[in-house]
Amino acid sequence: MSCCEQSNMSISTRHDPWPVREPFRGIYAHGVETRAGARVLHVSGQVGVAPDGSLAADFGGQCRQAMRNVLAVLDAAQMTARDIVKMSFYLVRRADMETLVDIRRELIDDVRPAVTTLVVAGLVSPEWLIEIEAVACAA
Fold it and tell me: Omega into 19 within 30° of 0, i.e. cis?
């Protein structure tokens, strides 16, 4: 594997000085470089609350909705998932990590941002099981 991979978007380059291991290969990069002059969008933490105010009871439903919310903010800025260069995931249960990986593959497969995943004691609302932040860059 090469240490650097130019994305479809010429504004960013992924840097992997050593191979990304399964199950994270294809959905993670060790580093992402963005060239000067890019438009940069910082997406605030998105939770699993749908636009109509509903909240799924399970982690999978909340995770899918939180990802859809991130994608909606990107769309509003005329960006796509391929423009994501950094994501942070805040989980309240370590046991949900495998489901998170599966849903990332389902909704944004082959998007390789720099990623941080944290297991936290809680989020603002005790019903929330995940919060997702993102940074995207585009020409």
Answer: no
Alpha carbon distance 32, 86 (integer Å): 8
pLDDT (tens digit per residue) in 37-95: 999 999 999 999 999 999 999 999 999 999 999 999 999 999 999 999 999 999 999 99
Which among 26, 136, 45, 42 has a CA at the least distance from the CA of 89? 45
Written as six digits, the tokens of 118 are 């944290």
Q: Torsions phi, psi of 39, nearest 5? A: -75, 135
Q: How many residues does the chain have?
A: 139
**CATH superfamily to which 4-138 belongs:** RutC-like (3.30.1330.40)
CB-based contact 139:38 (threshold 8 Å): yes
Q: What is the DSSP string of 18-72?
A: SPPPTTSTTS-BSEEEE-TT-EEEEEEEEESB-TTS-B-SSHHHHHHHHHHHHHH
Beta-bridged to residue 32, according to DSSP, are 14
